[in-house]
Specification:
This protein is of the alpha/beta class. It has two domains: about 170 residues, 3-Layer(aba) Sandwich (Rossmann fold), CATH 3.40.50; about 170 residues, Glycogen Phosphorylase B (Rossmann fold). The chain is built from 13 helices and 13 strands. The radius of gyration is 22 Å and the shape is elongated.
Length: about 350
């Protein structure tokens, strides 16, 4: 039985969830997988090895020693900049270990880290990127582009077969971390525009935590929009059953699975026309794309879906079939298993 290390930061994230989904599947396939978290374990997951990280050198040396002791055949490493320090640990160990580097986002590489990426390219057998946009961005760091492949992340589509809750007012919703990247403020202002300039009766539900949440709540209160915009707690499913349209007003993404989850729940989606998002949303087919920072364009697209029930239904049906075909977890898992088999024929 071949031994695999699954390495990821112990901080809760989409990348961590995907890494553990793949790990669980590989275990079911008979691989000996050891899940390794960098620095700490702030998750619900048990039976993981935590490699301490008082400083970067501490992590590199500690992981190197763990590699020498346990001698894995393959390392799958997720997340920036964990992949860089993990490759240095392999180099320090002196062991011959194959490595798959999974890139989950369009990371902001410094000149120094781009330099390290190029130098450590020889320790990487394959780069897996979660979207074509992420792949193109990674290639710009100067790595061997022949090693790059795209495998889309996937979801359990059946889990989002949900019954909508009855409500009287057309409702938009967004679930995301409150941050400059996700830009909830543009969506808030689009709803304000519809209410104050177009005299529309519409509601917005926002869910998530983060640095910009306080400012968003203050804006809603200061502009007397509390009757139209509500901040709610819970999880994605709690929000999506209350909504008629899902919006992601983001500035950049790797591959936002929350859009796939909305599609799986048969909720039409509006997203910013940026890398990652525009690989999931085919404009006017599986959703609607809007310009970045364009309050009026976003408002108009929301109203387009509100007023055109037939178009909403067409998008709901097409997007569901789209996500079922391209972004389901079974396809993701089998693609990773096939990749491992191609890297090391004995793994089949």
């Amino acid at each position: 039985m071949k031994k695999i290390f699954n390495v990821v930061s112990g901080n809760p994230s989409g990348a961590l969830n995907i890494s553990m989904e793949i790990s669980e599947y590989l275990k079911q396939c008979g691989f000996d997988v050891i899940d390794i978290f960098r620095k700490y374990n702030k998750t619900k997951y048990k039976d993981v090895v935590v490699i301490k990280d008082k400083c970067t050198i501490d992590y590199i040396v500690s992981l190197s020693n763990f590699i020498k002791k346990n001698k894995p055949d393959l390392v799958i490493v997720h997340g920036y900049s964990t992949h860089i320090w993990t490759k240095l640990a392999i180099a320090h160990s002196g062991e011959h270990v194959k490595l798959i580097h999974v890139e989950h986002n369009r990371e902001k590489y410094t000149s120094f880290r781009s330099f390290l990426m190029r130098k450590l390219d020889k320790y990487t057998d394959k780069y897996i990127c979660v979207s074509k946009g992420v792949a193109n961005h990674l290639i710009k760091q100067g790595i061997d582009d022949s090693k790059v492949e795209v495998i889309y992340n996937g979801i359990d589509v059946q889990k989002f077969d949900l019954q909508k809750e009855a409500h009287d007012i057309f409702t938009a919703g967004m679930v995301a971390r409150f941050s400059k990247q996700k830009d909830q403020m543009t969506l808030i202002k689009a709803i304000e525009y519809l209410v104050k300039e177009k005299n529309e009766q519409i509601k917005l539900l926002l869910m998530g935590e983060g640095k910009t949440k306080k400012r968003c709540k203050e804006y809603v209160k200061e502009h007397n929009m509390e009757d139209y915009i509500e901040f709610i707690d819970g999880n994605f499913k709690d929000l999506i059953v209350k909504t008629d349209v899902f919006v992601l007003s983001t500035h950049y993404e790797g591959l936002p699975l929350v859009i796939c989850e909305a599609m799986a729940s048969k909720t039409p989606v509006i997203g910013t026309d940026v890398i990652g998002v525009n690989e999931i949303i085919v404009n006017n087919e599986t959703g609607l794309l809007v310009k970045e920072n364009d309050i009026v364009d976003l408002a108009n697209k929301i109203m387009e879906l509100r007023k055109n029930k037939l178009k909403r239904e067409e998008i709901e049906n097409k997007s569901y079939e789209w996500v079922l075909k391209n972004f389901n977890k079974e396809k993701m898992n089998t693609d990773y298993k096939k990749l491992i088999g191609n890297i090391e024929g004995k793994f089949k």
